[in-house]
Amino acid sequence: MKLINRSKANKAIITTSNFKIETKVQNSILRYKKIILQNGTKAFKQINDELGLKTPKTLKVSIKDIKKSEGLLTDNIKIAILQAANNIKTVCKSDLNKANFKAIETTKGIKIWKEFKPIDKVGIYVPGGSAPLVSSLLMQLIPAIVAGCKNITICTPPLKNGDVAPEILWAAKQYGVTNIYKVGGAQAIFAMAYGSTIVPKVDKIFGPGNAYVNAAKQLISSEGISIDLPAGPSEVLVITNDINKVKLAASDALSQLEHDPNSQALIMSCKLNVLNAVKKEIQNQQKLLKRQSILKDSIKNLLLIKAKSFVDSVAVINDCAPEHLILLDDDYSLYLKDINNAGSIFCGPLSPESFGDYASGTNHVLPTNGNAKTHSGLSINDFGKYISVQTASQEGFNNLKNTVIELANAEKLDAHINAVKIRETFLESVRPGRTSVDIRKTNETSIYINLNLDGSGNYNINTGIKYLDHLLEQFAKHSSIDLQLTSIGDLEIDEHHSIEDIAITLGESIKSALGQRNGISRYASSETLVMDEVQCNVSIDLSTRRYLKFKASKLREFVGDFPTEMFKHFFVSLINSAALTCHINTTGENSHHILEATFKTFARAFKSAIVIESDSSSSTKGVL
């Protein structure tokens, strides 16, 4: 325990966490790697024998053992696991919602968006030892599940009896993960990296561990195999100027120092009396703790820092970039705007770092060794990647082509220029169309529409609701528009979100494709269609007045998989979004006929209204 007084000198804070991999460790993992690659699954026993460890008879955990974990745990630990998992999942879902990028128009007719796609095969390493680190599993498994990873492999060292801790198995069981292997240490990392054993090869490896595990991860990372974060011993920086929070500061420091002999804690204050009191309190609390064998070494890594001022405190924080930063005092908000470097921040006296380690919902896999200057903590982003997508309409192509030709010419890349100019020739052979590409993403749905009002009735529709597909196919065919529509929605919950959002997005796409609506016929008066006993009448005005008058005979609850309560609602959403006026009146007895006739008649009326008759507006106002 050492005191640094920055009031006397601007002494740099040198952290003891900046350790290098020992030669002994480096040599061992290189040998383990060679053994794994040469001997495959047999290598596990060879390495375990060298380390004096017993190798289980079966390396993969059986479904029977996973199910058996249910009866080996108390209700209290199950409830604790579920509450922690729920909080972590809530944060992950919030992150996923932010990952849904709405399409933006950078230049008129040029649309850009991003697609978040999960990594297919991920490997999760859960350290073992004297106690099951179920929190480590939750922090990795839940973001993987929320991100959408389909193939998840878990490696963890078994207990002395050869079994995996039931807490680990039960938590994995809640998410349907059964690829669990009784393999620990560097050999688990190499097994998941190279796929030369019973353990499957994965695309990215996650998880903390001892020096050997971290050295193995660094080695495979240097070979181009993806890992999560640069790892090192735990760190915490605690800030307080309140003598009444001395016990809190001491307890937070010790909660990190008990992790590992190389763990580090820093306690900083502008008041020397606070630091002196903290020193005594740490000595008092340390005596009462169980992990004395670790604390006797890690306590040497405790620094007490006397800051010159608030500004100096912020400078130290940003320079150290601690894994955990605890702002104990009630003025924590004053710090937040100036803190640029920290893995995770705990604000106020009632937010112990222990909350983040276990159950508040933030992830406890965080950057160490100053890596918080350039890295974030683990999140769903680490379990996926973003793919940028763009599309150009004819208008967009014409708006951007000269800019691209000019830039490519400056860089003397004539093939780039040719790729643009050849499309100018292509456009001369293509009939101009009123087109639109629209993407709508919400928490419940992702909808993609490519529409051409001047098409020939071609369609490719997949909404996940078969009868709605049929109705929209009728709309495309009878209106002669080309319609490509895909919807991915939460149909396992209800059809409502998908049907409503499809109608909204289709309306937005129609509105966009119509543009200024100059020269269109505008009106379709009393389009009538009969289908057996059903008669449908539809009138349309493509002015931008939003109004729907809707009347239809009584329907049964469902037609196919389409809930008929959404029949009128579909048109309400479509008409409002497309900005048009529509009157619909359908009478009949057969529910199937009523729905189909309405969509066909609306399509035929729409086809008449969008016909281009002149170059001018069809309104005396000069604009619709």
TrEMBL record:
GO molecular function: histidinol dehydrogenase activity; imidazoleglycerol-phosphate dehydratase activity; metal ion binding; NAD binding
Reaction catalysed by this enzyme: D-erythro-1-(imidazol-4-yl)glycerol 3-phosphate = 3-(imidazol-4-yl)-2-oxopropyl phosphate + H2O
Entry keywords, A to Z: Amino-acid biosynthesis, Cytoplasm, Histidine biosynthesis, Lyase, Metal-binding, Oxidoreductase, Zinc
Broadest EC class assigned to this enzyme: lyase
EC numbers, comma separated: 4.2.1.19
Keyword Ribonucleoprotein attributed: no
This protein's pathway: Amino-acid biosynthesis; L-histidine biosynthesis; L-histidine from 5-phospho-alpha-D-ribose 1-diphosphate: step 6/9
Organism of origin: SAR86 cluster bacterium SAR86E
GO cellular component: a single term: cytosol
Extent of the signal sequence: none
GO biological process terms, semicolon-separated: L-histidine biosynthetic process
InterPro entries: Ald_DH/histidinol_DH (IPR016161), Histidinol_DH_CS (IPR001692), Hstdl_DH (IPR012131), IGPD_sf (IPR038494), ImidazoleglycerolP_deHydtase (IPR000807), ImidazoleglycerP_deHydtase_CS (IPR020565), Ribosomal_Su5_D2-typ_SF (IPR020568)
Protein name (database record): Imidazoleglycerol-phosphate dehydratase
Cofactors that this protein relies on: Zn(2+)
Location in the cell: Cytoplasm
CDD domains for this protein: Histidinol_dh, IGPD
Family, similarity comment: Belongs to the imidazoleglycerol-phosphate dehydratase family.
